UniProtKB/TrEMBL annotation, chain A:
It holds the Pfam family ABC_tran. Belongs to the ABC transporter superfamily. GO terms for biological process: cytochrome complex assembly. It comes from the Bacteria. Residues 20-229 form the ABC transporter domain. InterPro entries: AAA+_ATPase, ABC_transporter-like_ATP-bd, ABC_transporter-like_CS, ABC_transptr_haem_export_CcmA, P-loop_NTPase. One of its GO terms (molecular function) is ATP binding. SMART domains: AAA. It comes from Methylobacterium brachythecii. This is Heme exporter protein A.
Automatic annotation (TrEMBL), chain B:
It is found in: Cell inner membrane. Pfam families: CcmB. GO terms for biological process: cytochrome c biosynthetic process; cytochrome complex assembly. It comes from Methylobacterium brachythecii. GO terms for molecular function: heme transmembrane transporter activity. Belongs to the CcmB/CycW/HelB family. The chain crosses the membrane at residues 21-42, 54-72, 93-123, 129-154, 161-186, 198-218. It is a multi-pass membrane protein. Keywords: Cell inner membrane, Cell membrane, Cytochrome c-type biogenesis, Membrane, Transmembrane, Transmembrane helix, Transport. One of its GO terms (cellular component) is plasma membrane. Required for the export of heme to the periplasm for the biogenesis of c-type cytochromes. It comes from the Bacteria. This is Heme exporter protein B.
Length: 229, 222
C-alpha cells in the first residue's frame, strides 16, 4: 500500500504534470440517456468550465469523474500520476460539502487532511486564506451556507491534489469570497493543477475551455426504446 | 493507513460524544428493556435469575440496533462518504474503523455495564461475570452483522426499520451461543468453553465477512 503523500505525481517538484483524458463518455440515469459521446482532454494548468441547462448532466459528469457514478460507456483516465488512481488525485467540492455539523471547522479540516494525505497547509492557514479564521473553533453547524462552503473550499488547501472538481463552487459565496476562490484556482493552475467546474455563471476562470452539455434532442436516437420506462 | 484509521476512529468517537450523537443512547435503551422485564414477569427471583442471561442478551441485540442505521447513512447524506472514497486507504479499512468506533460506543459500554444491570434480574455473581464475558466477546459480531445492513440501507431514507428486519435473523446464531455460554457457566452438561469459543469464532467470522460485505455494499450503492 502506498504511504502518506502518494496522491499526485508532483511531490518532488512544485509542478504536477497530470493529464486527464475523457473519451466518448455516456451517462444513463434510471434508464434515460442524459448525454453521450462526450470527450475532452485536459493538460497541466488547464481549466474546463462545464455548462448546460439544469438537468443537462453537469453534476452527473462530475460524479462520474469522481468515481461515484459508473459511466454507461467511455473511458476516463489520468496520466503521469504514478500509481495513484483517479479518485486519489482529486478534490471534490459539491453540493454535499462533506462537513460534520457537530465538529468544529478545524476538526473537520484535520480529519480531511488525515484522510486524504499529502498535507500542505495547516487548517488554520487554510481558513485564514478563506477569511474564516474566526470560525476555527466554531462547530460548522453554526455557520451560514456561504461560510460552510468556504470551509469546504479550505479543504482544497489543506492537502495537495492535482485535480479539482468543483460543482457550483460560487453558490452562496459573496463577491469577496468569489474573488478569493478565483485567486486560488489561478494559483493552483499556475502550479500545474487542473480545474473542472460546473457552473452557470462566470467564476473567474479566464481562458478556461468550455464544455457545453447539449440537451438530448428527441430527433436523435439517444435512448433505445426498451429503456423508456 | 494507520493514520487514516486513527483519524476515522477519533472522528466517530468525537461525533458520538457531541450533541446529536448516539453515545449513551444505546446504554440507556439497554437499561430500559432490562428494567421492564421484572415488571412484566413479577417479582419471582428464581425465574428472573434463571432467564436473566437470556434477557440481558436479548436487550443487547435490540440495543445494538440503536444508532446502527446512521453508521454510514449520516456520511452518505452529507457527502463525507465521497471524501472517504477519495482517500488512498481502501474502503474496507474505512468500514473497519467506523464499525470499531461504533462498537466502542455501544457494544463495549453495554458489556461493561451488564453486571450492574444483572442486579435487576437477580443474577448470581458467577452469572454476572459469565454474561459480561459473553457480551464482550459476542457484541462485536452483532455490530459487524449490523454494519452490513447499515451499508445496504445507507442511501434509503427511513432505512432503520428495513435494517432491523434484514439484520435480526442473522443475529440469531450469536444470540444462541451467547446465551448458552452464559448458562453453561452456571452448571450443566456443556462445558463453558465450548459455546464460548464458538461465539468467539462467530465474532471473528463476522469481522471479516461484515467488513468485506459492507464495503462491497457501499461501492455497489454508488
Amino acid at each position: 500500500m502506498k504511504s502518506v503523500g502518494g496522491a499526485g505525481g508532483g511531490q518532488n517538484g512544485n509542478r504536477t504534470r497530470v493529464r486527464l483524458i475523457v473519451q466518448n463518455l455516456a451517462c444513463r440515469r434510471s434508464g434515460r440517456r442524459i448525454f453521450a459521446g462526450l470527450g475532452f482532454s485536459l493538460g497541466a494548468g488547464e481549466a474546463l468550465m462545464v455548462t448546460g441547462r439544469n438537468g443537462a448532466g453537469k453534476s452527473s459528469l462530475l460524479a462520474m469523474l469522481s468515481g461515484r457514478l459508473k459511466p454507461d460507456a467511455g473511458v476516463i483516465r489520468v496520466e503521469d500520476v504514478g500509481e495513484a488512481t483517479l479518485a486519489e488525485c482529486l478534490h471534490v467540492v459539491g453540493h454535499r460539502d462533506g462537513l460534520k455539523s457537530a465538529l468544529t471547522a478545524e476538526e473537520n479540516l484535520v480529519f480531511a487532511r488525515d484522510l486524504l494525505g499529502a498535507p500542505t497547509a495547516s487548517p488554520r492557514d487554510a481558513l485564514e486564506a478563506m477569511g474564516l479564521v474566526h470560525a476555527l473553533r466554531l462547530p460548522v453547524g453554526y455557520l451560514s451556507a456561504g461560510q460552510r462552503r468556504r470551509v469546504a473550499l479550505a479543504r482544497l488547501l489543506v492537502c495537495r491534489r492535482p485535480l479539482w472538481l468543483l460543482d457550483e463552487p460560487t453558490a452562496a459565496l459573496d463577491t469577496a469570497s468569489q474573488a478569493v476562490l478565483s485567486g486560488l484556482m489561478a494559483r493552483h493552475r499556475a502550479e500545474g493543477g487542473l480545474v473542472i467546474a460546473a457552473t452557470h455563471m462566470p467564476i473567474g476562470l479566464d481562458d478556461a475551455r468550455e464544455l457545453r452539455i447539449a440537451p438530448p434532442s428527441p430527433a436523435q436516437p439517444v435512448a433505445e426504446t426498451e429503456d423508456w420506462a | 493507513m494507520i493514520r487514516v484509521f486513527a483519524a476515522l476512529v477519533r472522528r466517530d468517537l468525537r461525533l458520538a460524544s457531541r450533541v446529536g450523537g448516539s453515545g449513551a443512547l444505546s446504554l440507556v435503551f439497554f437499561l430500559m428493556i432490562v428494567a421492564l422485564v421484572p415488571f412484566a414477569l413479577g417479582p419471582d427471583l428464581n425465574l428472573l435469575s434463571r432467564i436473566g442471561p437470556a434477557i440481558l442478551w436479548l436487550s443487547a441485540v435490540l440495543a445494538t440496533l440503536i444508532g446502527l442505521d446512521r453508521i454510514f447513512q449520516a456520511d452518505e447524506e452529507d457527502g463525507s462518504l465521497d471524501l472517504m472514497t477519495a482517500s488512498p486507504a481502501p474502503l474496507e479499512l474505512v468500514v473497519l474503523a467506523k464499525v470499531l468506533a461504533h462498537w466502542l460506543t455501544t457494544g463495549l459500554p453495554l458489556a461493561l455495564a451488564s453486571p450492574l444491570f444483572g442486579l435487576l434480574v437477580a443474577l448470581s455473581p458467577t452469572a454476572m461475570a459469565a454474561t459480561a464475558l459473553t457480551l464482550l466477546i459476542g457484541t462485536p459480531a452483532l455490530t459487524f452483522i449490523g454494519a452490513v445492513g447499515a451499508a445496504l440501507t445507507a442511501s434509503i431514507r427511513r432505512g432503520g426499520l428495513i435494517l432491523a428486519i434484514v439484520v435480526i435473523p442473522l443475529m440469531i446464531p450469536v444470540l444462541i451461543f451467547g446465551v448458552s455460554a452464559a448458562e453453561a457457566a452456571l452448571g450443566g452438561t456443556v462445558p463453558f468453553a465450548t459455546p464460548l469459543t464458538i461465539l468467539g469464532a462467530l465474532s471473528l467470522i463476522a469481522a471479516v465477512v461484515g467488513t468485506l460485505a459492507s464495503a462491497a455494499a457501499l461501492r455497489w450503492s454508488e
